Amino acid sequence: MVPVDLANSTMGYFDTLPKSFADVPINDGEIETESFLTAAEGLVALFDAINPIAFKPVKVDMLGNIKKIRDKYLVNPVAYCTLQKIVQAEAGQKDRTATQGLLWLKRGLEFTAKALRRNMDNPAEELSASFTAAYGVTLKQFHGMLVRPIFTIAMKACPYRKDFYTNLGDDPEQVQQGLEKWLSALETILINLNAYYEKGNYAKGL
After folding, report:
1. 157, 170, 175, 182: least buried by Cβ within 10 Å?
2. Contacts by residues 6-13 (CB-CB < 8 Å, ≥ 24 positions apart)
3. Spatial distance between the Cα atoms of 182 and 34, rounded to a whole number of angstroms
4. pTM of the full predicted structure?
5. Range 28-200: architecture per CATH
6. Residue 39, Cβ neighbours under 10 Å: how many?
7. Which pLDDT score, from 0 to 100, does residue 10 have?
């Protein structure tokens, strides 16, 4: 799937989504793989509403991690129908590519979710401030000295908040409602994944 380019689309962001995080099934605590990956690909298009050039490294990284998970899923879609089943299958193995990909994708999604939640909760705060603060409490601790400046530049390149929300759609009320529904669902998924990784200590060695 190729994420929708919002910069060249007349539709709002939530109109372009093939799958929202709100539509990702979670059964018995396990997250459906295919739906999650499609929703995550849709999130990547969100960076086109922020700054497609400055956030290109973020997009490339996230899409690369999505591919790692999907490649594993396609080996056996039935056996790997949930994210948890993929991680469980790789536990104890030397090759944990999909587990690592999901770990880093989770971190990227958490960075995005915290930035957007902070911005929604602080109507007077500009997007650059929200994303900078979110980076400081999420991805920054995992990045080395060579990567941090790239993300710092990206944060500074965020558009004015009014322009960002306009890019998400023409109707402000619909945009806010759509964003809240989508973001709340993403936050629920992240709570699930964080608890799962922590309980099983699946991030060890990655």
Report:
1. 170
2. 6/45, 6/46, 6/48, 6/49, 6/167, 7/48, 7/49, 7/52, 12/168, 12/169, 12/170, 12/171, 12/174, 12/175, 12/178, 13/45, 13/46, 13/49, 13/167, 13/168, 13/169, 13/175, 13/178
3. 17
4. 0.90
5. Orthogonal Bundle (1.10)
6. 23
7. 44
Q: Which helix (H) or strand (E) holds 30?
A: strand 30-31
Distance, in Å, from the CA atom of 171 to the CA atom of 177, rounded to the nearest integer, reads 10
**pLDDT tens sequence across 2-46:** 444 444 444 578 888 999 999 999 999 999 999 999 999 999 988
State how far the Cα of 18 lies from the Cα of 39, in Å rounded to an integer.
7
Question: What CA–CA distance (Å, rounded) separates 134 from 127?
Answer: 11
Contacts of 174 (CB under 8 A, 6+ apart): 12, 14
DSSP 19: S
Tell me how far CA of residue 79 lies from CA of 32, 45, 48, 72, 103, in angstroms.
Answer: 12, 29, 34, 10, 20
Instruction: Please name every residue paired with 30 in a beta bridge, in sequence order, or none if there are none.
Output: 27
Q: At what angle do helices 33-44 and 56-75 cross, to 10 degrees?
A: 160
